[in-house]
Design brief:
Layout lengths: L2 H12 L3 E2 L3 E6 L2 E6 L7 E7 L12 H7 L3 H14 L7 H4 L14 H7 L5 H25 L12 H14 E5 L3 E4 L15 E5 L12 E2 L32 H6 L24 E2 L9 E6 L18 H8 L11 E4 H9 L4 H13 L5 E3 L2 E6 L7 H10 L3 H21 L14 H13 L13 H9 L2 H15 L7 H9 L7 H32 L8
Antiparallel strand pairs: 1-4, 2-3, 4-9, 4-10, 5-6, 5-8, 7-10, 11-13, 12-13
Helix pairs in contact: 3-7, 11-12, 12-14, 16-18, 17-18
Length: about 550
Amino acid sequence: MTRGLRAFKRWMKSHGVEYSDALLFTDGVEGIGVKTLCDLSVGDLIATIPKSACLTIKTSMAQNFIEDVGIGDSLGLAVALMFELSIGQESNWYGYLQLLPKKEPVPLVWNLEEVDTLLVGTELHKAVKYDKSLLYEDWKECIVPLVAAKQLNLNENYFGVEQYFAAKTLIASRAFEIDEYHGSGMVPLADLFNHKTGAEDVHLTSMSANSGSEDDDVRDNGGNDDDDRGSNDGGFDDDAKLSIEELVVDSFGDIFENSGIQKNHKTMATASDENHLNGHILESYSSAGDDPDALGMILIKNVKAGNEVFNTYGTLGNAALLHRYGFTEPENPFDIVNIDLNLVMKWAKGSFSNRYSRSRISLWKKLGCSSCSNQDSEYFEVTFSGTPQLDLMVLLYIFYLPDEVYCKMDLSLTTRMKVDISLSSPMNDELPSSIVDGVHNAMDIIFSAESGGSLPFSRETEDMATQRVDRLLTKHVCNALISLADIREGFYGASSLEEDMHVLKGCCRLREPKRYHSLSLRVCERSILKKMRIFASKSGCIRKGKKIYFAA
Ligand SMILES: C[S@@+](CC[C@H](N)C(=O)[O-])C[C@H]1O[C@@H](n2cnc3c(N)ncnc32)[C@H](O)[C@@H]1O
């Protein structure tokens, strides 16, 4: 065991952190991980962590001045972390901080040349540059004045821009949302568990008697932040976090529900004098106590002796994993690629005038269709299987609607909107709900307009959703999808997917992590684009052999 781990164990003991003696902390070339020495079962409580041992704005010695100047959330936590680092052994978390890496080598702390060469074309290229400029501004506006305020007597060597970026990488990769009072914070021990996509063994949860539902899982800050582009690029500009109370519909919910964990809390057994209990596990969750001031780590799966115990950082694609945690996973089913609306406009320029494109997009919006949006871009998602977002297919379909159908629909929608809006509040500039009813409704309106008022397929006998999509995929739409995939592919530069795959094979994950994971991201994204082309060409072929409802 390394010195850092030994000191950390002593620190845990003196700060009331208890853990099962079945847990083995490993410290190898790939960093720290947690294994089990004996079989563990669903519902086993393998660790408890007092909230007072978590490093948050509230628990930090810097609380007063952070709250006085009014910086909260992840910026405030970064200041708390930098402050605790700056006071060395004086810090309550010294034994914990010694174990942390100086920074997590995520793209935020790559130099600009690395970002521009390794990430070019990928979902992360723009996002990382955006983070860098935004965080630099935050530092200048909020942290520089703190250091300048001599009465705070801050050690400027710990509050430079480099130190701020490093703190942000640690927070992005290790912080959890604790509760409404503490906000997000560093949770010692819980942050030693590595991630496995969709197959985690353990959850961090609240130990309060009023808790015990899936709502109480303490959320890793990486999980599905609302501000993440397509929930796929992680994100450092993350002030909108969910507290435990808000986690009613959490992505972990199903797993927790199916885990068979008993949720009737009883009184917690008196803590042993020893930090590790002898029976391998601390408690089963059902007999663990009511302690609103503690967090518990609970097994949601059986884990065999000798295996690593994994947590999950959320259902994240590779762009998000690399962005926030600095690694990627092969064949990650949550991977997506985005097609920007601007890219669709670029494609449209080849065949249509700007005016024509704008009018078709306007009709698409009036029908209640939409793209995803983030920061200053609008985009469509393409899933791991290569299926493009339905709204994109509808937009492409609308581009090819005959003029007379387009005019008829536009006129009728505009008239309807005018009537509906004049009947509602004069301040209400949103579309009436009768019109904004989602992309499926939009398809029904289009198909019905094309066929002179009736839907040309049976609602009773066939699957409506499949019929709708099938009908959307005209030859024009399929060709447009292939062209969009080709244009998007062009962003990666001259090398082909096969060349990238070949280089990736020869690249060592441990020796060249930046090159390896960025190449892995490129290969995953380009493979999705390849699947999108196959989706479009197969759909085109299938249509040739089927009844075609309308001329394409
Ligand atoms: C919360 S920490 C987990 C503990 C960490 N391994 C350590 O040494 O302290 C998160 C970091 O661990 C690493 N990590 C976690 N899961 C991983 C995985 N499945 N593959 C590669 N690295 C992983 C990444 O560097 C990530 O940013």
